[in-house]
Design goal:
The protein is of the alpha/beta class. The protein has helices at 18-29, 62-82, 100-115, 125-131, 154-167, 211-216, 293-306, 352-369, and strands spanning 8-14, 35-38, 54-55, 93-97, 121-123, 142-146, 150-151, 171-173, 178-184, 187-193, 196-205, 225-234, 246-249, 254-259, 262-267, 315-325, 332-335, 342-346. The chain has 2 domains: 8-52 and 155-223 and 329-369, 3-Layer(bba) Sandwich (FAD/NAD(P)-binding domain), CATH 3.50.50; 91-149 and 225-323, D-Amino Acid Oxidase, Chain A, domain 2 (2-Layer Sandwich), CATH 3.30.9.10. 29% of the residues lie in helices and 27% in strands. The protein is globular, with a radius of gyration of 21 Å.
């Protein structure tokens, strides 16, 4: 039986990934209960479901570090608050450097983290190797360790945020597509959907890969594009346990996430592979893209160098799924400059899980108070 949509809502959120659900959660936390989230397929079905689920706290800027730290704090308490499992655990993270320039960058990041109360340790190559025994440290010049970093199950965390929003009155409706956005005199007024029209005081574009297309419905440019994004999951490996921290090697473009005896090896390859140049297919839902070993091979070579034991380990899964990226590697958050009360939260450059809590909090406070929260943006 289809849910009948209300004729109006104070806030309409377009998109049921972790960003949209976080926005709904935080709006209801601030007392705005007349919130309607519309998802064209199912919650998490765009890119959230296949995310690696890393929740590090150190970012390139003051603001992004503050928001990432808040995200970790939120995920730590969310399961207790909602009763919905999130899979969050604090296994820490180790970041290694193979150049002095990278090590200097990591030390600066560590200093900023300490300023905000994040526990960060600076490590020698030997100390990094002791923390991660399978790590090849021959060309490592140092690293940093953040014991309070963690990881979460993306789908479960999204459901927990959705449950928290519902508990305070938000309505979340799946299998309904927004087909038009209505405006009057430079202000958003509502949407048309496959189940009828809904008037609204605010509309929030959390449509992920579809955010550009949604913005075009009302003349708002959302500069992002989907690109293929890769990781592998190995067979069981000796020496891999859930107690190991997440390992990141930015000079080698790779990260390594322990998963119950197996290892997820992901990458931010230096040359991206755009996807959906003619638009994202309407029926794309929990979708996976074809394998491309030729594209992944240069990254895999770096992974084999960093963890030589991978050479003798089988691969259980090669995953290729799209993520949305922005031109400057900064996510898009805030009110559209040319349309009053139309907000955007999209383009998270494959770090949506670690960004969702902070982004949802900022967005909600911006909408409720009319200004971004001081000290966050």
């Amino acid at each position: 039986m289809q849910t009948i949509l209300p004729a109006q809502a104070q806030v309409i959120i377009i998109g049921g990934g972790i960003i949209g659900c976080s926005a709904a959660y935080h709006l209801t936390q601030l007392g705005w209960t007349d919130v309607l989230l519309l998802e064209r397929q199912q919650l998490t079905s765009g890119t959230t479901w296949h995310a690696a689920g890393l929740v590090p706290q150190l970012r390139a800027t003051h603001n992004m570090t503050v928001l990432a730290k808040y995200t970790g704090e939120l995920y730590r308490r969310l399961e207790t608050e909602t009763g919905q499992s999130t899979g969050f655990r604090q296994n820490g993270s180790l970041i290694v450097a193979t150049t002095e320039a990278r090590l200097t960058e990591l030390k600066r990041s560590a200093s900023m983290g300490r300023y905000f109360g994040i526990d960060v340790e600076t490590l020698s190559p030997a100390e990094a190797g002791k923390l991660w025994p399978l790590l090849n440290t021959r060309d490592v010049v140092g690293g940093i360790y953040v014991p309070t970093d963690g990881q979460a199950n993306p789908a479960d965390t999204t459901q927990a945020l959705a449950k928290g929003a519902r508990m305070r009155g938000a309505r979340i409706v799946e299998q309904v597509e927004v087909t038009a956005i209505h405006t009057r005199c430079g202000r958003v007024t509502g949407v048309s959907t496959t189940r009828g029209d809904v008037q609204a005081e605010y509309v929030v574009n959390c449509a992920g890969m579809w955010a550009h297309a949604v913005g075009r419905m009302c003349g708002v440019h959302v500069p992002l594009h989907a690109a293929e994004h890769f990781y592998i999951v190995t067979d069981e490996m000796a020496g891999i346990s859930l107690e190991l921290p997440t390992l990141r090697d930015p000079d080698g473009y790779t990260y390594y996430k322990p998963e119950s005896g197996r290892l997820l090896v992901g990458a931010f390859e230096p040359v991206a592979k755009p996807w959906g140049m003619q638009g994202i297919p309407d029926d794309f839902c929990f979708g996976q893209l074809p394998e491309d070993w030729e594209h992944f091979e240069p990254v895999m070579e770096k992974a084999l160098h960093r963890l030589p034991s991978l050479e003798h380990t089988g691969i259980q899964l090669f995953f290729n799924g799209p993520e949305s990226f922005t031109p400057d590697d900064r996510y898009l958050l805030g009110e559209a400059p040319n349309l009053k009360n139309f907000f955007v939260a999209a383009g998270f450059n494959s770090v949506g899980i670690q960004s969702a809590g902070g982004a949802g909090m900022v967005l909600a406070e911006w909408i409720v108070n009319g200004l971004p929260p001081h000290g966050h943006l």
